Amino acid sequence: MHPLIISRLIESGYQVFFPIGGGNELLVRDLDGEIKTCVARTASTNDEHSSVLKNQTGFDLIAAYDPATKNVWIIPSNVLENMTAIRLGRKYEEYLIPEPVSMEYRDRRKDRVRYYDSLKEKASKLGKEHEEND
C-alpha cells in the first residue's frame, strides 16, 4: 500500500483504520461518518503509458494511486461494477483526491482567519460601546 494513499485520505478528512497484520485492506470513516471497507491499489502503466487498475470486488471503496502522475483516487466500487479493469483519467476525475496544501500555507491561512476573527470581535465590541453611548 502506497503511503501517499493514506496521507491523501487523512488530509481529505477520512479516518483510516489499519488491519492487524497489514495488507491492502482498510476501514475508513468517510466525511459523512459512515465506516466503509476500502482496498488500496497501485495502478500499473501499460505500453501506451496509461494507468490501468484491476477492479477488486467485495469492498465499498477502491483507493487508487497512479505512480506516473502521483494522483490518488477514491472510487466507490458500485461505479466499477462489471468491469475487470479501468483506465484512470478524466472519466474518474470527480473521484480524484486533490493534492493537499502545504502545512506552511495552512498555518498562514489559520493565522489570517484568527486575525480577521479578532478584528470582527473588536468591531463588534466597538459597535456595542457606541450604541451604549448614544
How would you summarize this macromolecular structure in one to three sentences?
The protein has 134 residues and is an alpha+beta fold. 30% of the residues lie in helices and 29% in strands.
What tags apply to this protein structure?
Trna Endonuclease, Chain: A, domain 1; 2 domains; elongated
Could you characterize the architecture of this molecule?
By secondary structure, the chain is α+β, with helices and mostly antiparallel strands. It folds into two domains: 3-97, Trna Endonuclease, Chain: A, domain 1; 101-134. It is built from two helices and nine strands; from the N terminus they run αβββββββββα. The strands form two sheets. The protein has a six-stranded mixed sheet with strand order 1-2-3-6-7-9, with helices on one face. It has a three-stranded antiparallel sheet with strand order 4-5-8, with no helix packed on it. Strand 1 (15-17) and strand 2 (25-29) form a beta hairpin. The mean pLDDT is 78.
- What is the CATH level 1 assignment of the largest domain? Alpha Beta
Content of β-strand: 25-35%
Q: Distance between the terminal alpha carbons, to the nearest Å?
A: 66 Å
Q: What is the fold named in CATH at topology level of the largest domain?
A: Trna Endonuclease, Chain: A, domain 1
| Succession of helices and strands | HEEEEEEEEEH
CA gyration radius, whole angstroms: 22 Å
Biggest sheet descriptor: 6 strands, mixed
Query: Which structural class should the secondary elements be placed in?
Result: alpha+beta
Report the total helices. 2
Uncertain runs: none
Instruction: Give the strand tally.
Output: 9
Shape: elongated
- Strand order, main sheet: write it out: 1-2-3-6-7-9
Number of domains: 2
Q: What portion of residues is helical?
A: 25-40%
Going by CATH, the architecture of the largest domain would be 3-Layer(aba) Sandwich
Give the mean pLDDT. 78
